[in-house]
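Page header: ASSEMBLY MODEL / two components / 356 residues total.
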Amino acid sequence: MLDFIKKIYMRDDTSSRNQANNRLRVVLTHDRLNLNANTLNTLKEEIIAVISKHLDIDGTPEVRLITEGRNTALDISIPIKGR
Amino acid sequence: MDKKTSECQVIVVTSGKGGVGKTTTVANVSTALARMGYRVVVMDLDIGLKKLDLILGLENRVIYDIVQVIEGECTLRQALVKDKRFPELYLLPAAQTRNKDEITPEQVKQLCDQMRPEFDFVFIDCPAGIEQGFRNAIAAADRALVVTNPEVSAVRDADRIIGMLESAGFQDIKLIVNRIRPDMVRHGDMLSIEDLLEHLCIDLIGVVPEDKSVVVSTNRGEPIILNNRSTAALAFNNIARRITGEQVEFPTFEEDSFWNRLKGLGRNLFSTR
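Prediction written out in full:
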C-alpha cells in the first residue's frame, strides 16, 4: 500500500521532464565545448595514464565536467597512494 | 505622431530552430507597443520565406520590399507598409523571390540607422538557422530576444544562438518561453520555466502559454493582443511592457486546487525520507 502511494507522489524521478533535463545537461555541455562523449573518455584515459606513470593511483580516479551557469570546468579528482 | 523616446531600440527576435513562434512574437509584441503609443517598425529579414506580412494581416498591402530599398529601386518611405488599425505600426516586408545572401550586415545596419531617428522601436524578425540570414539580423540590433519552446530540440538550438549572440558582443539577451502547457509541467511531462532558466542561464522576459486562440487570430490576420480572454494575449502585452522597462510580475500558472494542495502535502511527507 505504502509503495503504491509513494509511486503516485514520487513518480517524478522517471518523468519525461526529468529525462529531458538530464539529456539536456549532457548535450548542452558537450555542445558548448564542441566535445563528444568519445573525446571525453579518451581525455579521461590519457589523464589517468599520465598520472599513473609518475604516481600510484589509489581507488577510483574521477575526471568529469562540471558546469556553473554557462561556464564549464574540468574536474579531476585522483586519489594517490602514500608510502 | 512623434516618437515617444529619445533613443531608438533595435531588437532582434531569434531562436535558432524554426517554428517556435518568432514571427508571432514579433507581430504581437510590436503591435502591443504600437497600441501603447510607441512608433514601431517591424522588419522581416526572412528573405525568401516571408511570413510577417501574413501574420500581421498586411499581405495585400505590400508593394515594395527590403531588397528593393537596399538596391535603390524605391525609397524606405515607399516600402514601409502602414497598419491602418495601429497608426504607429509599420512593416518593412521581406522579398519572397530573393535570397538571404543578397543583402549584407552592413546594409541592414545602414537601413536601421536611417530608421532610428523616426522610431521608438525597430523589431527584426530573424530567420531560423545560424547562417547569413542570422548574421544580417543581429548586425544592427542593440538587444536580443530569444524565443524557445519547452522542448529539448528548441532548447538546444536556443543555447547555440545565445552562445553566438554572446560572442557577437550582445549584453542584453532575454528569454521568451512560448507554448508552455502548465498542466503538462505539473504532471512531469514538460520542461518547466525553472528548468529552461537552469539550462540557458539568461533572464526571462516572457512566458506565453499554449493558446488555441493564437491559431484563430493567425487565420484571420488579426493580432491576438486585442483578445481580452486570451492568456497568450496577456503574455504578449506583458512582454511589451517589460521591454519598455516596466516591472511586470510573472503570473503563476499553478492551480491552487484542493487536489494540488493534497499532492503537495504528500510530496513533503515522502521527500523527508
